[in-house]
């Protein structure tokens, strides 16, 4: 019997230069969102997959936002009903002030062991790995028992309405499990996220001549500042954390302290966070501001409903003397996760251990992502991708080359484990590594 696992991993190792070239080319497409235009990069991806014998269906959410779905169909007499989705987004956040970059943000160059450029970490390094791993499986003719689909979406960085949810809600792709190539730690895939609650409020005032303030006029910006200060008390909301997630929260907090060296970030896993993102007010420096709009980004832990956060925010604003309609927008939803006992979780964690030879386990993420949309459709999902975490959405974004290669191997191996290969024993396919615990912590092999 062919040792497909060995053959696939050896192929990725031997052809790693092609993987890195693919990543470089993806970065060279300036797919900043906004404005969001995926046409050129989509044409490149379609052609790349075609050369590997993979056809692609194009689903246009708009004239410039193209969703791509490509499927390797399972084969054999013992075909499985499992269907794995590899998901990635082609859009990146704007590069911003080019003078603050040490290199061209769309160069896609490799220097000192790093892939450079906007999207290297978020998430064209991971996207390249998904595309390359799928192409390798196709070119080698691996007889997967289940279907493997690529879902490449054009819209994630501005809320993602035209990406993953657009595809899933229309039934244009479906699956029994999914892997998203979002950036993560190389040994710690993300198996859950906090919820989100974005909202804004507008304060009205009375204009007047600036030289007479505060005697004349009613400054809307000053009033809004009182509301901003009051909203900090959202942090004090006490979550009723479900017993089933208490252990994974503890693990994630410990990981943040010991592994990610994130300073005080471990505290946010069981608190509502409050970020005053934008303040827009006033008409001129010498005029008392008659209007001020404030936008707030709040992230919601397990054990708190985002709608309760909105209600509490309204109460706090009233206590501050602000009678204003609070308008939700953007991300809205509760914390969500995929338990470690799900096969795709244990398969991918085991694959990390097998490829790296080091300990691996899943953790929670304090931000939000497209993963929630898959979970809303009852599709178990996790996130794993190469990254230099400190450079995500920052100037001088980059990703370690070795992580790009490792992730591609993990993606391919996870597909073999989850979908199975013709002749593979199901008990071997799903068996967790020795030392697995209820929360997905595994001993290194």
Notes on the protein architecture:
It is a single chain. This protein is α/β, with parallel strands linked by helices and 445 residues long. Helix content is 33%, strand content 19%. The chain has a six-stranded mixed sheet with strand order 1-2-6-3-7-15. It has a four-stranded antiparallel sheet with strand order 10-11-9-12. Strand 1 and strand 2 (66-72) form a beta hairpin. Helix 1 packs antiparallel against helix 11 (401-419).
Q: What's the gist of this structure?
A:
This protein is an alpha/beta fold and 445 residues long. It has helices at residues 4-14, 16-27, 39-51, 120-140, 164-169, 220-231, 243-258, 306-319, 343-356, 371-376, 401-419, 426-430, and strands spanning 57-60, 66-72, 83-89, 110-111, 114-116, 147-153, 177-180, 190-193, 195-204, 273-281, 291-300, 326-333, 336-337, 363-365, 381-383, 398-400.
Helical stretch tally: 12
**How are the strands of the largest sheet arranged?**
1-2-6-3-7-15
Q: Into which percentage range does the β-strand content fall?
A: 15-25%
N-to-C SSE string, H for helix and E for strand: HHHEEEEEHEHEEEHHEEHEEHEHEEHH
How many runs of DSSP E, i.e. beta strands? 16
Poorly predicted segments: 430-445
Mean pLDDT: 93
Supply Rg. Answer: 24 Å
Largest sheet data: 6 strands, mixed
Tell me the helix content: 25-40%
Structural class: alpha/beta
Shape: globular
Distance between the termini: 25 Å
